[in-house]
Design brief:
heterodimer, A: about 350 residues, alpha/beta, four-stranded antiparallel beta sheet, disordered N terminus, B: about 300 residues, mainly alpha, MetI-like fold, 13 helices, about 70% helix, about 0% strand
Chain lengths: ~350, ~300
């Protein structure tokens, strides 16, 4: 794969190859009717190194969350392969997969829907333990206390129910549950999007601290570039089911190659008012096409100000432009300038 | 002067204040006590249950004992009525009050057993259809449609006519007939719960499908399930009465409210109380069950909590 040189130099914990997830859109209830497919994830490949945070950004509906869930096999991928260490997750049956679950966990976005309203916090956090064979109530109590302290919650609150907590606290419970089984890889599916800005920082700092403390590897899914910039080592940008650019954080933010990435970064406000006043935004024309009816050629071509004839015909290959910097753009591949003039 | 300040959870814990929230069950209990319909329904049900349970103690006479000498006695509030037979006697001279009291046993027995059979069938079907979707859902939806296209009373009459009427047959026939509302309601609510992230979270934690259904989905279905249960008990009791009235249900001389109405219809013009009394008993029980069902729906609804 394109990532191979990279993967050799550092140890890849998770490797994703040509992952695809299509959802059938049924029309009518009778079987066998022609149906349209929504290509939520359409052939993405990347690897995540041990101990790093890979940020995955893109606008709503571009397939970020589906990618995260497909990696964990919460959605069965349509095709493609996912490796965790040396195990291929995509080929595993139910029982083998369940045995591997403790190593790969997920933190969900919506802190309300993610906690069963009928269960107390203690029960929610201890559920993964019980599933994986911890039954002695003393062990469970000890571990739940430890976890609550780890995420900065008062262990006295085990008997409380989710509705008694604020959004930030619920997200901490959510994190505690994900960490209950000592995972090495955690998919964070927009863990901060539903939170106030002040609480976002707390949760991101908590995630950072836990990463250092426990040696976690994250796939951090978000649509907020500034948060991703803060937490990620490398960043992948998704558009309409495909990764258009993947690079180390610095490289991506200083020298974005793909026109879509450039427009995304230009949309991030700058904290310095003087600079902010001079900031030029790249405004894209049109709407994101429906993933059920993706454009031929480059998925970004209908909105790309620099698109030329080839862009509308053949999909650009996803290739390495500079060491560690992958991009999927004809302009870059053909040594033309891909910079949108501001 | 006192000022009231709103403080957050975090602030409270900093200040060392233990904020105690009522648990969902406590909230529910509170709104139950406030809900009139719920209280009335529950009271009626409790009274009828006690009546059925204590029938041998409460009934002044043997409900089967016939006596030609005392037939068609008037009730206590009519002319020549006596406290010996408060509700009078029927055309066989059996004490009407005792028959009403024993009749509640038949109604409740049939109501609850039918509901349990129907709930088991309907909930299983709805749960599987709602959770797995796709082909399973298609099959279940088809079965529900087929079931809804059959008029329950007609099918019940046909089956009872073939197999002969008895309490056992009535229970099984109705149980296998009225699972439709369970299936429809449970399927719809499972479809709502299915995409919830706590289901995905349980899956990510390595939960088996069976465990997800039992530990995550079913507890969240209980509200709806209990409501449908109470309503279906009422429906089963009504259907039993209808079948008994048609002579296709509980067989004489068993005291059943439906059967009593049926037996009294010949004397409707001369002794109307014979038909009114079991009718009122039936009406009050069904009203109570429906009030109870609506009450449970109200007190368990999330918008009812404050």
């Amino acid at each position: 794969m394109t990532d191979q040189q990279d993967a050799v130099s550092q140890q890849a914990l998770v490797r994703v190859e040509e992952l695809k997830k299509y959802f059938p859109l049924r029309q009518g209830f009778l079987p066998g009717r022609a149906h349209v497919q929504v290509k939520a994830v359409d052939g993405v490949s990347f690897s995540i190194h041990r101990g790093e945070t890979l940020g995955l950004v893109g606008e709503s509906g571009c397939g970020k969350s589906t990618t995260g869930r497909a990696i964990l096999q919460l959605h069965k991928p349509t095709s493609g392969r996912v490796f965790f260490e040396d195990t291929e997750l995509t080929g595993l049956g139910g029982t083998e997969l369940r045995q591997l679950r403790p190593r790969v966990q997920m933190i969900f976005q919506d802190s309300v829907a993610t906690l069963n309203p009928r269960h107390s916090v203690g029960k929610i956090i201890s559920e993964p333990l019980r599933i994986h064979g911890v039954h002695s109530s003393q062990d469970i109590r000890y571990r739940v206390t430890e976890l609550l302290e780890l995420v900065g919650l008062n262990p006295k609150w085990v008997k409380r129910f989710p509705h008694e907590f604020s959004g930030g606290q619920r997200q901490r419970i959510n994190i505690a549950r994900a960490l209950a089984l000592n995972p090495s890889f955690v998919v964070c599916d927009e863990p901060i999007s539903a939170l106030d800005v002040s609480i976002q920082a707390q949760v991101v700092n908590l995630l950072n601290r836990l990463q250092d403390q426990l040696g976690l590897t994250y796939l951090f899914i978000a649509h907020d570039l500034s948060m991703v910039r803060h937490i990620s080592n490398r960043v992948a940008v998704m558009y309409l089911g495909k990764i258009v650019e993947l690079a180390p954080r610095r490289m991506l933010f200083m020298d974005p190659l793909h026109p879509y990435t450039q427009s995304l970064i230009s949309a991030v406000p700058v904290a310095n008012p003087k600079l902010e006043r001079g900031r030029k935004r790249i405004i894209l024309k049109g709407e994101v096409p429906s993933p059920a009816n993706a454009p031929s050629g480059c998925v970004f071509s209908p909105r790309c100000p620099l698109a030329y004839d080839e862009c509308f015909v053949t999909p650009p290959p996803y290739s390495q432009a500079k060491p560690g910097h992958f991009v999927s753009c004809h302009l870059v591949n053909n040594d033309k300038s891909s910079k949108i003039p501001v | 002067m006192n000022t009231i300040e709103t403080i957050t959870n975090e602030k409270a814990s900093e200040l060392g204040i233990e904020v105690v929230f009522p648990t969902p069950n406590q909230i529910m209990l509170r709104s139950m006590v406030r809900h009139k319909g719920f209280l009335i329904g529950a009271t009626v049900l409790i009274i009828v249950v006690l009546m059925a349970a204590l029938a041998p103690v409460l009934a002044p006479h043997d409900p089967y004992e016939q006596s030609l000498a005392t037939r068609m006695l008037p009730t206590v509030w009519q002319e020549n009525g006596s406290w010996e037979y408060p509700l009078g006697t029927d055309n066989m001279g059996r004490d009407y009050l005792s028959r009403i009291i024993y009749g509640s046993r038949v109604s409740l027995l049939i109501g609850f057993l039918v509901m349990i059979i129907a709930a088991t069938i309907g909930t299983t079907m709805g749960l599987l259809a709602g959770y797995f979707g796709g082909k399973v859902d298609m099959v279940v939806s088809f079965l529900i449609t087929v079931r809804l296209a059959l008029p329950a009373v007609l099918v019940a009459v046909a089956v009872v006519a073939l197999m002969g009427g008895s309490t056992k047959v009535v229970i099984f026939v109705l149980g296998f007939l009225i699972w439709d509302r369970f299936a429809v309601v449970i399927r719809a609510s499972t479809q709502q719960i299915r995409p919830m992230e706590y289901v995905a979270a349980a899956k990510a934690a390595g939960c088996s499908t069976r465990r997800i259904l039992i530990a995550e989905v079913i507890p969240n279905l209980m509200n709806n399930l209990i409501v449908v249960m109470t309503l279906e008990v009422a429906r089963a009791i009504l259907l039993e009465a209808a079948l008994s009235f048609l002579g296709m249900g509980v067989q004489p001389p068993t005291p059943s409210w439906g059967l009593m109405i049926s037996e009294a219809k010949e004397f409707m013009l001369f002794e109307p109380h014979l038909i009114t009394i079991p009718g009122i008993a039936l009406f009050v029980l069904l009203l109570g069950m429906n009030l109870l069902g609506d009450g449970i729906r109200d007190v368990t609804a999330p918008e009812g909590r404050s």
